[in-house]
Design a protein that fits this description.
The chain is α/β, with parallel strands linked by helices. The protein binds one DNA strand through helix 7. Keywords: ATP-binding, Helicase, Hydrolase, Nucleotide-binding.
DNA sequence: GACCTGCTGCGGGTTG
């Protein structure tokens, strides 16, 4: 039977009205498989290939919405995506009598109350709102979800390998337990790196199948090279070239940081105004006020004819609906392949159109990284993030949430509950007990009779609105002009009264800083600096670093490079030719200089960080540059380094003891994790070794490499 | 050189 015939009458009617000539491959496959099996499915297909419909056409056919209780739970990482999908699903349900409810922090309270009173239909929610449901409406969970048939997770790759993903998986387990229900899971994504890891969502990896439409849109690419000379400032020629590239098109520009977004938007606007051309240049990032961002998104979506450029960070990387753009500009390399795939997918969304991407680079290492990522993308390789094997920090958060939600639970019940929780599959009962003991010792929880309860101290933590998320957020000051919020900035020492900065593509002068209400009052000004934002380094995966070396030592030519890129690549290749590297898996350059030695690792950021940990442990001073892949040491020979590496094969007890000392001396080291500080010290050590460093992998890497030296 | 994500419930006021 054709997949169309499997669909219910109202759904077929809907399809007829859409004037679709045919169903897309991913839709056909999904309808067939979802309606004829009981498996979970991950639907993977390129952006704008109709994945939402692929999930909902069969689900709407399968589910009897006249029954009470929420039938379908759609989970999204972003509020903006929920708002977009709400409209789409509403259209899909036009001929069906189905209630659709948005449930997130900015959704209507009355709609939520209505759902509680009469739970049914489809609910669209964020993981954090789900967490809050367990905390504040625990007794409603069975009533809401005991008839749940499907959970749909949108942009599921975004959760994979992240703390938010561990939290989400734990929440799915908690729904199953609390509402005593078994649901099917449908995950949607355009970019999947690690299939095995994604299949674990929902706790039935063996019954979770992947439907993948690997067809990709033709993409035209060009690389341009404008070296930045001194400091962080862009080469003026880059800005002029960029202007020519964008001013007559609809474009998204991704320069990788909020400060650079402001800088580039400012320059482009300036050039355009000088030439009396249009002023549709926008800055879009997390520090620009939400209403302003929505205005920009809406401008892009509704505007059919006029050209515009939105300069943005990853805020416009996921599937928020802004319509189609003509081209995507990436300035310096993305940090991973999935990011590039998502960004490219934003152009040429209409059928038959090709995607267009222009990659600018401002130094040769970024150029090399960009080529590596582009080549891997062409090969269909996507890099993936990996979770900690023992995510103790999320465990501590979930333990607190469960105690709060249950309003008292015995220790044995709690241990048993988390032993079965598939989100913590490798964590043992003894380890769970240690986590609980630590919370008791730190007096976050207390024991009353047989039951564990949140203590007075703990109430402050679990009752704070900051409790629901597993990621940290810094204190921000609102930037206000004439009672209108422009955006928000972290307060830094550079910012004082009379200082000037760029935000939302305009220059502002600080009039007043109100510390109590966390406000910065500003007025427009003529010139100013880009604002300073705090941000940690972003890890680069091993396959990208390895590919960079492969390209560096090969003679491979790339026809998408402009002359300046070719020249820059040649200089870098010539520089490394002296090492006579043959095998990119094994050979690593060791550069002897007049008073220092540089080890070029071409390894993942995590491995580099771990090598530095080993060096610190052995009292060897080192300096590390992730972009250039190099660890700088005092003068040393390859023989000395081999000797040192063999010493790294140390008893893990020693490194544990060392890390304990490090943590005791500097407790802030654990702050890379929001909930890490509540863990016992041995679990803090484990978390560092597991999530921050990578000992096994690093030892394997060091045992495998052969150093190739230059002769001074 | 350095992304992003989310957030309760209540009480008091205003509006239709």
């Amino acid at each position: 039977m054709s997949s169309y015939n499997l669909l219910s009458e109202p759904i077929r009617k809907y399809i007829a009205e859409q004037n679709w000539s045919e169903l897309r491959p991913i839709q056909n496959a999904a309808i067939q498989r979802i309606l004829t099996t009981t498996d979970n499915y991950i639907l993977s297909a390129k952006t704008a290939s109709g994945k939402t419909e692929a999930a909902f056409l069969p689900i709407l056919t399968d589910v009897d919405f006249s029954e009470s209780g929420v039938q379908v739970l759609y989970i999204s990482p972003l509020i903006a995506l929920i708002n977009d999908q709400f409209k789409r699903i509403e259209e899909l349900c036009e001929h069906l009598d189905i209630v659709i409810t948005k449930w997130h922090g900015e959704a209507s309270q009355s709609a939520k109350k209505k759902l509680i009173k009469n739970p049914n239909g489809i609910v669209l929610i964020t993981p954090e709102s789900l967490e809050s449901m367990f905390c504040n409406r625990s007794h409603e969970i069975p009533h809401l979800f005991s008839n749940l048939k499907y959970v749909v997770i949108d942009e599921i790759h975004y959760f994979d390998g992240t703390n938010r993903g561990v939290q989400l998986n734990s929440l799915l387990y908690r729904i199953q337990k609390r509402a005593n229900v078994n649901f099917r899971l449908i995950g949607l994504s355009a970019t999947i790196g690690d299939l095995e890891s994604i299949k674990k969502f929902g706790g039935r990896p063996l019954d979770t199948k992947v439907l993948k439409d690997s067809s990709s849109k033709p993409t035209s690419v060009s690389f341009k090279y404008f070296e930045s000379k001194g400091g962080n400032n862009y080469n003026l020629d880059l800005i002029k070239d960029l202007f020519k590239e964008v001013y007559n098109n609809k474009v998204l520009i991704f320069p990788n940081s909020r400060g650079k977004v402001e800088e580039i938007t400012h320059y482009l606007l300036k050039i355009s105004k000088q030439g009396n051309l249009h002023t549709n240049f926008f800055a879009h990032h997390s520090s620009v006020d939400k209403s302003l961002r929505e205005y920009i998104e809406n401008f892009a979506k509704t505007n059919t004819y006029s050209p515009f450029s939105i300069c943005c960070t990853s805020t416009l990387e996921l599937g928020i609906d802004i319509g189609s753009v003509d081209k995507v500009v990436q300035i310096d390399s993305t940090f991973n392949i999935a990011s590039l795939v998502q960004r490219i997918g934003r152009s040429g969304r209409k059928d038959g159109q090709e995607s267009k991407v222009v990659l600018y680079n401002t130094n040769s290492w970024f150029l090399l990284q960009s080529i590596a990522i582009w080549e891997l993308y062409q090969q269909g390789v996507i890099d993936s993030k990996t979770n900690a094997v023992y995510p103790f920090d999320i465990l501590v958060h979930q333990v607190l949430s469960v105690i709060r939600s249950r309003n008292g639970i015995t220790q044995n019940e709690l241990i048993n509950y988390f032993e079965q929780n598939y989100s913590f599959e490798h964590v043992t009962a003894i380890q769970i007990e240690q986590t609980i003991q630590s919370l008791l010792e730190k007096q976050i929880i207390e024991q009353t009779g047989q039951e564990l309860l949140i203590s007075l101290e703990g109430e402050y933590i679990v009752n704070s609105k900051d409790f629901y998320s597993v990621f940290e957020s810094e204190q921000m000051y609102k930037v206000i002009h004439q009672n209108i919020v422009i955006g928000e900035l972290p307060l830094n020492p550079m910012l004082s009264e009379e200082s000037k900065f760029l935000l939302a593509s305009r220059v502002w002068r600080v009039i007043l800083i109100e510390n109590d209400s966390k406000k910065i009052i500003v007025q427009p000004a003529n010139s100013g600096d880009k604002p300073t934002f705090y941000g940690g380094p972003v890890d680069i995966s091993h396959i990208i670093k390895e590919k960079m070396l492969e390209i560096l030592i090969s003679k491979q030519e790339f026809d998408y490079l402009d002359q300046a890129s070719l020249d820059a690549l040649k200089i870098l290749r010539d520089e490394f030719a002296v090492y006579k590297l043959v095998n990119y898996k094994i050979d690593r350059p060791l550069k002897h200089d007049v008073n220092k030695t540089e080890l070029y690792t071409f390894a993942s950021s995590k491995i580099n960080r771990t090598i530095c940990l080993f060096l610190d442990f052995n009292g060897i001073k080192n300096d590390y540059n992730d972009l250039e892949n190099s660890i700088i040491l005092k003068l040393t020979t390859a023989q000395d380094l081999y000797k040192l590496f063999s010493k790294f094969n140390i008893d893990s007890k020693e490194i544990n003891l060392y890390l304990k000392e490090v943590i005791e001396e500097n407790p802030n080291i654990i702050d890379f994790s929001k909930w890490g500080k509540y863990l016992p010290i041995n679990q803090q050590v484990s978390l560092l070794l597991d999530a921050y460093y990578s000992v096994e992998e690093t030892l394997q890497f060091l045992n495998n490499i052969e150093l190739k030296e230059n002769i001074l």
